[in-house]
């Protein structure tokens, strides 16, 4: 999230799309309701009339998987009606940048496209050099502030979305034209200095083969309207778990190290080569180009891991990804299915239910020699070998279970959706022999070190030299000591700007980190979270200045990365003189007399007009044209990899040309066997794969089993009554569900045909309830296809058949 939960109350318009926030993020709705009390408009765009829709001023239905068509139409509406915030757009976005003549878009393809070799997980790839900016003699992008040059981003944007007419958008999405116009008019009205709008989205946007571009498209709208960096604005992701943001910050994903540093590649054998590859250089004196500090952060991370080893050497110990290869979830399980893994740690997860194409995931685990399941309960993953269709006598996988304690039984921090790091003290002691994840990791690391020390082994240096003592105290794992290490220390007496910091002193902020090995930090973004003043994340002080109180910054409650900044990109909330565009809800303001910023921590403390606002970008501007994405610099509507239509009215290319897929796996496109669109979603009563909530009697009573939500029209078409048992089938598998016949779904009119959509929750599995009455995982139906940037699977739009179960067909 660029903003934070409380800031929702400052919005004039709130768009909830790709989310059912009222049901699945109910705390967010406290602040949505505050905004509504202040006169804000709430818009719900969803294939289904949800709990959020009941609270909305405007509800617009759309067919699953057509979000970019919907948003592309909004971009055209904004441009055609001159509703963009021009001053903001010229000063703070790359709308004025001139793009190379090599860039073009034709027949659904951007320039630079090439088909991949057979067997690749990606259908094709782009040479992004075709999307470069023209440069002046100093190497800086050429600009046209008048926005009249035919090859400036603004003009290319107009050309690209000129195809997204109201008629075409309505035809593709199934959204009535009057609803499109109502949404567009309401949202675009915030393209004024004193207005702001925000987007609240969740997995309904991300879990698509165009998931990244869904979010990019909305970010572009926010830049056009001047809604980034301002109170009540931003692009705000609603996380499905309290520490998703924190886990990502600390490198849960395969391609990043802590603080969003890049995983080393095999073609970067030295630290010097690595830092040069990922450190951007700008010759523009007004570009802060904050990533120029990359070597300070990478060296400090290495020193946190290996404090007694030269960082140039310890870099050679880091695992390297093969150049040109990716290691996403879908690819790992595909490799496992091919027998390319001997072992697997399933830590705090349940992939037998949570992973797309669950039959493939479960089959893949039968190819292993061993698996370790670390969890608070046994689950479908730990017991996959005795699940449906499995014969334990034929499965070689040896499974070990390490029992964890629960979150309330351990000390530590979570970083919530708003980037707030909040400290949690331990409650009751862990039950029985259960231990915290930190204790398990420390003990496991120590046993591995002892084994290597005793028996030797290949490439032992990175294991034997890893400093696990810094994670512990006299009683084992220490969350506090680890938090201090994540913040970072001075490793020797260091003088910075005339002040000397003694060895062992906690580094006060990431601006003090060094690239010579004199500092360490486990995550540069969290440097400032635990200082000599104490644990910033544990603060519970509600005091604010009057300016901060107007929008509710609460700077002394917990801690927010980076450096306690509550709204990032906030230099874009003021004009070039430092005057807030919206004085009544100012985020920051320049005090000329005192020569300092007031309000939030500014996104860089320089005087107004001296640096560009988007300091993390090499060029310093928000990216309407985004040349770094794998699937194009502008979002383009492509159908899901499984879809009910065979034409794309916007271009000749039906589906994403660079999406992740596995060629041996069949897809259902206009397949009469699977005529209905399906989506998975959450319900309030259950959480994730239901591992905890299905074991809670009152929650199970409220939502006891798998259901399939469908329209009255589809139920009539298939002779299904409310409460009937039905069978859902896809190319990959089938499951049973109880029919929930409702008016919340309506048929869509799409390109002259009627398209029905159904929905199923993803919280169930075969293991519990033990009598099998709960059903099984929704992911038995979902495809192994993913976004080319992230690999996230497309579980929100795929094709199924729904029919009434035959007598005797079900065991439950």
UniProtKB/TrEMBL annotation:
Keywords linked to the UniProt accession: 4Fe-4S, Calcium, Electron transport, Iron, Iron-sulfur, Metal-binding, Oxidoreductase, Periplasm, Selenocysteine, Signal, Transport, Tungsten
Localization annotation: Periplasm
A GO biological-process term: anaerobic respiration
Main localization of the protein described in the UniProt heading: periplasm
SUPFAM superfamilies per UniProt: ADC-like (SSF50692), Formate dehydrogenase/DMSO reductase, domains 1-3 (SSF53706)
Span of domain Molybdopterin dinucleotide-binding: 677-798
The protein's name in its UniProt record: Formate dehydrogenase
PANTHER family: FORMATE DEHYDROGENASE-O MAJOR SUBUNIT, TUNGSTEN-CONTAINING FORMYLMETHANOFURAN DEHYDROGENASE 2 SUBUNIT B
Organism from which the protein derives: Desulfoplanes formicivorans
GO cellular component: periplasmic space
InterPro entries (alphabetical): Asp_de-COase-like_dom_sf (IPR009010), Formate-DH-alph_fdnG (IPR006443), MoPterin_dinucl-bd_dom (IPR006657), Mopterin_OxRdtase (IPR006656), Mopterin_OxRdtase_prok_CS (IPR006655)
UniProt key word RNA-binding: no
NCBIfam families assigned to the protein according to its UniProt record, in alphabetical order: formate-DH-alph
Alphabetized CDD domains for the sequence: MopB_CT_Formate-Dh-Na-like
Family: Belongs to the prokaryotic molybdopterin-containing oxidoreductase family.
Entries under Pfam families matching the protein: Molybdopterin, Molydop_binding
GO function term, MF aspect, one: formate dehydrogenase (cytochrome-c-553) activity
Cofactor: W-bis(molybdopterin guanine dinucleotide); [4Fe-4S] cluster
Residue ranges annotated for the Molybdopterin oxidoreductase domain, each copy included: 2-378
